[in-house]
Amino acid sequence: MAVKAVPTETGKVLGYLPEDRPPVGAMLSLGFQQVLTMFPATVLVALLTKFDVGVTLFTSGLGTIIALLVTKRRIPLYYGSSFSYIAVIITVMATYAGGCFNDPTTTYCAEGVRIAQVGIIGTAVIEVLIGLLIMAVGKAALDKILPPIITGTVAIVIGVALSGAALSQAGGTAVGAPADFQWRFWAVGGITLLATIVFSVYLQGRGLLGMLPILLGAIVGYVVALPFGLIQFGAAPAERLGYIKYFADVTSAPLFRVPPITFPDFANPNAWAVIFSIALICIATIPESTAHLYQMSLYIDQLAKDLGRKPKEIKNLIGLNLVGDGSQDFVAGLFGGAAGTNYGENNSLMAITRNYSVPVLMTAGVIAILLAFIGILAALVGTVPIAVVGGLSIYLFGVIGMQGVALLQSERVNLFEPRNLAIGAVILVLGIGGNLALPNGLFPFKVPVLFPNGIPAIVLSAIVGILLNLLFVILPPSKFGVKERSNLDF
Which of 9, 55, 60, 70 gives a 20 to 30 Å CA spacing to 83? Predict the structure, then answer.
């Protein structure tokens, strides 16, 4: 049943609750704002992992619409590509599709995408199962298995473990730039990084511009890359240089194209290894999604109060929210888009505009789907120099790690308690050290069927952290007369 447009002004209060449908003009403009907000980070993930930009936009839009329907149009969240999965997806693609993924002249590796899709669908299944479990037994039971010391530390590992990739991009070594050319990469990457930081700090609270520091930083980096020779105009040479981008790819691209949808390669002998590798990363994304839900619930209920309407209390829908997350990842895994998450940037935009309308978010989903069919757009994104991507990545990957620190702080994790120190310390060293020091980030512990080539460092760190925590749950120190150490007073 369609929801009619409702009056949104009570005194001086203006805003839209989830069930409200704004007038057509407002719905289109507000929907476009949502797409513009998610676009930079969503596309950047596709560039880093060599997924197709058009398919990623397509699954972002379709997945958002499906998730909104699955959650009965009660939870207004927009879904884009998740940075949390980048490290393990890069490991999977480099390990099982290294030929195309490691080729600096390619921007899309269909062979690797197909095997990664298997793991993304595995993530979807786990998210749905955990969501249903929470709906049945409550969140407290889950917190015993995945306490903040695990989820927060794994988030830190994910961010820091990517630091090597960010630096190799910013310096050009990731694409084989010669030594005497690398200073140009560092210059462009550094300027991109500085511009992005300046925009993110000084444009706070300035409307839509404040939501787009990544896009603005990328534009600055792109412009700066031109005089440094990282983008060349004119016809592309027969033998392309992998560290140079050619604008001829844009001028020769079709105006419209059908995104190259692929289907998961379940027949691949490494399918189970990929499922376990990628799906375990939801350890970090589940707390993030839940935090976003709590945040949105506060804002929505405050608007409902201001409008004189009943609070929505979507904070009680934790399980349903995770089922929605899983449905979006299922769409991404089925058609070849990057693994997704609901976007904090879009949540902030909704808080600023006081627009939580589900019809607006569905409109945004439709716009994203339509953009996926614009061939020139994908070609233009493909000309972004790797130095610009590296500059953005230094900032964004660091933010992922700092968000893990913020989770530990917000949950008041007692780091004076030896069991927490033990869990966190082991996860940090196994995850970060293993990813940076071991070949391909793999521990040489081969497990038939599951991990025939070795266990990815991030995955092993999460597994060991969970097992250590289970040990302390089964044999709590208090049973042996050990008293918990006091925490800092907050």
Answer: 70
